[in-house]
C-alpha cells in the first residue's frame, strides 16, 4: 500500500460500521491519522485493534451526534487532540422507523444526518483553514432526488414518513455541501464535495428501519447486479478524501463518476434558506465561514 497520506489527519464520522469502517481501514493503510468517530465503544475499539499494524493510526472518539451539546463536546476534544485537521469527512448517518426527537427537540434523522455535519464543520472550520489546503467530504445519497424542502415543516412534525425524512436529510447534505463550497473564500483553500456511495444493502444503515424497508433492502441485496459492494462504496468516499483532484475541485457531487445534484439541492434560494434554518436550529450565527 502506498503511504501517501502520512501526516494527514482525517476526522471521519461513522467510522465504526459499514462504508465508514472500510474507509477508515483503507485510510490507515495509506498512512493517515484517522480520528474515527462512532457511538459504540466496542466497535470503535475493535476498529483500532484491526488497524494496529497499519502504516497510519486510528484513534477512536466516542460521540452520539444527535445533540448539539455532543457535537460541540466532540469538536472540543478533536481540537485538543489534533493540532491540524486536513480532512473532515461526514459519513455518519442513520435511518429510523418512526418519528423520534432528540434531547434538543429536533427530528432525529435531520439532527444526525444534516445538523451534526453543519455544526461540526462550523466548530472545526478555523482549524481546517489553519491546516489548509483542507477538505470537507460529505457522504450523501442519490435518494435525495425523491425529496423536496418544506421550510414550513422541515422536520415532518405533520405526516411523518421515515424514508421521506431520510431522503430529505440527504437532500440537506447535498445542499449544505454546495452552499458551503460556494461560501468558502478562495484564500481559505478548503474544498467541499459530496459523494453518493451507491445503494449498499450489506451495511447496517437500515437496522432501525421498518420491517418492510428491511425486507426490501435484504431482498434487493440478493438480486445479482443490484446494489454496490461496501468496498466499492468505501473507495468512492476515500477518493474524495485522498485523490489530488479533490484538493482543487469543490462543489462536486460524485458517485462512480460525476453526478448532477437534484434541482432542489442546487437551488441557491433553497440552499440559503436551509443554511439559515440550520444555523438557527444549532444556535450559531448564519454568517459563516
Ligand atoms: N447503505 C446505503 O445503501 C447507503 C446509500 C447512500 C448513502 N449512504 C450513507 O452512507 C453513510 C454510511 O452508512 P452505512 O451504509 O455504512 O451504514 P452503517 O453501517 O449503519 O454505518 C453508519 C455509521 O454512522 C454512525 N452513526 C449512526 N448514528 C450515529 C449517531 N447518532 N452518532 C454518531 N454516529 C452515528 C454509526 O455508528 P455506530 O457504529 O456507533 O452505530 C456507523 O458508524 C451514511 O451517511 C448513509 O446515509 C448509505
Automatic annotation (TrEMBL):
Keywords: Oxidoreductase
InterPro entries in alphabetical order: NAD(P)-bd_dom_sf, SDR_fam
Pfam families assigned to the protein according to its UniProt record, in alphabetical order: adh_short
Database matches in SUPFAM superfamilies: NAD(P)-binding Rossmann-fold domains (SSF51735)
Entry annotated with the keyword Isomerase: no
Gene3D superfamilies noted in UniProt: NAD(P)-binding Rossmann-like Domain
Gene Ontology MF terms: oxidoreductase activity
UniProt xrefs under PANTHER family: PHOSPHATIDYLINOSITOL-GLYCAN BIOSYNTHESIS CLASS F PROTEIN, PHOSPHATIDYLINOSITOL-GLYCAN BIOSYNTHESIS CLASS F PROTEIN-RELATED
UniProt-recorded name of the protein: Short-chain dehydrogenase/reductase SDR
Amino acid at each position: 500500500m502506498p503511504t501517501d497520506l502520512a501526516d494527514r489527519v482525517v476526522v471521519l464520522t461513522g467510522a465504526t460500521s459499514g462504508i465508514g469502517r472500510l474507509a477508515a481501514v483503507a485510510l490507515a493503510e495509506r498512512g493517515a491519522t484517522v480520528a474515527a468517530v462512532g457511538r459504540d465503544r466496542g466497535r470503535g475499539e475493535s476498529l483500532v485493534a484491526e488497524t494496529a499494524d497499519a502504516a497510519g493510526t486510528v484513534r477512536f472518539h466516542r460521540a452520539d451526534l444527535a445533540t448539539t451539546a455532543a457535537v460541540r463536546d466532540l469538536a472540543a476534544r478533536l481540537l485538543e487532540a489534533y493540532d491540524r485537521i486536513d480532512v473532515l469527512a461526514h459519513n455518519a448517518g442513520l435511518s429510523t422507523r418512526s418519528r423520534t426527537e432528540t434531547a434538543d427537540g429536533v427530528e432525529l434523522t435531520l439532527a444526525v444526518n444534516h445538523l451534526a455535519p453543519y455544526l461540526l464543520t462550523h466548530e472545526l472550520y478555523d482549524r481546517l483553514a489553519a491546516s489548509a489546503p483542507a477538505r470537507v467530504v460529505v457522504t450523501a445519497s442519490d435518494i435525495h432526488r425523491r425529496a423536496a424542502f418544506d421550510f414550513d415543516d422541515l422536520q415532518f412534525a405533520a405526516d411523518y414518513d421515515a424514508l421521506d425524512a431520510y431522503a430529505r436529510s440527504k437532500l440537506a447534505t447535498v445542499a449544505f455541501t454546495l452552499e458551503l463550497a460556494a461560501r468558502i473564500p478562495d484564500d481559505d483553500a478548503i474544498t467541499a464535495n459530496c459523494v453518493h456511495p451507491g445503494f449498499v444493502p450489506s451495511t447496517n444503515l437500515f437496522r432501525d428501519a421498518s420491517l418492510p424497508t428491511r425486507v426490501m433492502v435484504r431482498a434487493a441485496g440478493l438480486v445479482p447486479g443490484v446494489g454496490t459492494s461496501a468496498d466499492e462504496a468505501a473507495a468512492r468516499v476515500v477518493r474524495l478524501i485522498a485523490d489530488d483532484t479533490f484538493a482543487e475541485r469543490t462543489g462536486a457531487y460524485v458517485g462512480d463518476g460525476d453526478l448532477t445534484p437534484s434541482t432542489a439541492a442546487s437551488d441557491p434560494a433553497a440552499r440559503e434558506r436551509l443554511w439559515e434554518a440550520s444555523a438557527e436550529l444549532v444556535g450559531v450565527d448564519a454568517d459563516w465561514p
